[in-house]
Amino acid sequence: ILVLCVSGMRAETARYSVPEEAERGSFVANIAKDLGLTAEELLARQARLAPEGEKEYLQLNQHTGDLVVREQMDREELCGQSEPCLLRFEVLLESPLQSFRAEVRLTDINDHAPVFLNKEIVLKVPESAMPGTRFLLESAHDPDVGNNSLQRYSISSNEYFLVYTRQRSDGRRYAELVLDRALDREQQAEVTFSITAVDGGTPPRSGTALIRVVVLDINDNMPVFTRTLFKVSVMENSSQDTIVVAVSASDLDAGTNGEIVYSIVQNSEENLQTFKINPGTGQIRLKKPLDYEEKKSYEIDVQATDGGGLSTHCKVEVQVKDVNDNAPEVIITSLSSALSEAAPPDTVVALFNVRDRDSGDNGRTTCELTGGQPFRITLLAADAYALVTSETLDREQVEEYNVTVRARDGGSPALSASKTLLVRLLDVNDNAPTFTQAIYTMVMSENEPAGRSLGRLSATDPDTGENARVRYALVPPPTGTLAAASFVSVDAESGTVRSLRPLDYEKVRAFEVTVSAADGGSPPLSAQAVLRVVVRDENDNAPLLLHPPPDGSAAGELVPRWAPSGYLVAKVVAVDADAGQNAWLSYELAKATEPALFRVGLHSGEVRTARAVTERDAARHRLVVLVRDRGQPSRSATATLAVALVNDFSDAFHELGHDPASGQQPQVAEEEMLTTYLIASLCCVSSLFLLSVLVLTANTLCKARVRAELPPPSPSCYVDGDFASDGVGVGSVGTLSPAYRYEMCLTSGSGRSEFQFVKPILP
């Protein structure tokens, strides 16, 4: 972009001309043709003029490319006597940004006639003046320049005087009156004629004044200046009444004829406004401060007149010395107030010129930027600069810059001026949204109805506008995974998470979904986070009995009459599908035939004897154990146990076959039938027992050799592995307490060879 812009800054300046006082709308030139552009291109690139001054005298027609007069221009008002009179401006084009310098020269027209400041000029000439004597006349003033300015003087016909037109060093013309024939006061005391100043215009213009020559008596000597030319230099910052120079003249005459009076000849109105002279001393002083930038030199005609009316003149050339009294000016010709933050380095931000009205080192300028900002200044041409970016920009760090351009001249002391440019950065979608948390954890209650708010996601985007507008969504899960996205929804605008349906803690305890936050940029940027939803358990499950089975019938348990206190009768095993406090189970004895005989472990569910069993205790007992969880409200279940107190194994069937709660007596026939069955069963059992003893003996003998080599097992008990398949093992599932294993052992001391339950062996 910089190469394109710089290449468009043409070094040459387009020059045009237009006569002053041209009517509004007058054609000056066709800019489009000179730039090699069509009218359509000129309009598309938004061509415009940037004048050097504050007032716009010209305008550009973007449709035709014509440069026309916008307002009538008076060359004398704009430039005075300066020549050439130039109006400078720049033609600015966009896309890409280009600048072309141009200037229009105002050509003078003859719109002013020469004018004498005094309509009557009085000269006092002694009658003794010799032919050829020259007299300086007041000059006429013509503000036009060139050929349209004053060119010559002429006088009306007379017998004594001729007029000659002379030219000063600055090009201005003045008149000298020359005596052609001796005067005789006695013949003619006064000579009157007219003088005419004519310019070179077409048609020419003229101005006339009357010259009245008064012939004086003889005054032999004229005043004589010490020098005919005085050259002095004055600083432009000199104050009012500062002495410029003191001229001096002498006269050999005595008396009033030798008294000299000094005066400034009215050769220009500007000199009269700027300088004054002391008539007696010849000191020339300033009436007002000088300005080097307005006028660099002055030429003053000083006349010395004695008391007899004789006069002479000299010239005083005043050179104004420049002082560094003008600070540089920073003129912005083009400014891009809004700049994309994605703009690469060397992007042109503004074009500007620096102008200093001083001269020499006082007018030599340099530019710099204040503050550490990502910009720099590039020199395009003499006093033409470009403000460009020096590095990449980031709107999220700095939204706008106040760039201060400072111009400094080379004077002593140096003067400077500053111009502040406001550069705003336009946002580009270069930042993805950012979640405030990588993982969001929210809790929902079990069986909570759909539509309930669980929480809110939050993501921020440092961009602005649509680039910072964040929208939330659930990321679809991979195929074949749990459709957790169907459990919750996310509000796209606010990020509020809501449940879509009730959940069962026992089926889904927690799930995770991926959520995304995308901004509204083009293309959009996004970020992801994990949403973890934990289901909070509710007490919606009652305890489930594993032992005894919950089939409505009482489980039978046998307790020997000799059982001591703390004897394990049975263990109630229950689980709860809930979790936490809702699954903490407690056991209590809700109902018993004899409450003082049994007790239940609060947390273990073990039913034990509260005291030693005695002969007075009833043979049959019915126990109801209540299992309760700790939920709010709590849920419970009951287990029923039928406990029989027996002396030996033969009493077991008889005791278990009767319900202590029943008050009916069996009939005699049924008792006899039962006795028969018992006898038959006893015979079968005895036979099986004898057969088992024989098999056991044989097996023992067979394994004697092996047992001799191995450590013997515990007496009268089977080893751990013998009941691996038949024993009941309860692992730590759900809310069960540590596992128990019950082993059955043959008691060798029993004469009736019955089985007995012994205490559990804890692992």
TrEMBL record:
Q: Which Pfam families match?
A: Cadherin, Cadherin_2, Cadherin_C_2
Q: Which GO terms describe its cellular component?
A: plasma membrane
The UniProt record lists the Cadherin domain at: 10-116, 117-225, 226-330, 331-435, 436-545, 559-662
Q: How does it sit in the membrane?
A: Single-pass membrane protein
Question: What keywords is this UniProt entry annotated with?
Answer: Calcium, Cell adhesion, Glycoprotein, Membrane, Repeat, Signal, Transmembrane, Transmembrane helix
Residues crossing the lipid bilayer are: 674-697
The UniProt GO MF terms for this protein read: calcium ion binding
Task: List locations, semicolon-separated.
Answer: Membrane
A Gene Ontology biological process annotation? homophilic cell adhesion via plasma membrane adhesion molecules
PANTHER family in alphabetical order: CADHERIN-87A, PROTOCADHERIN BETA-1
Q: What function is annotated for this protein?
A: Potential calcium-dependent cell-adhesion protein. May be involved in the establishment and maintenance of specific neuronal connections in the brain.
Protein name, please?
A: PCDBD protein
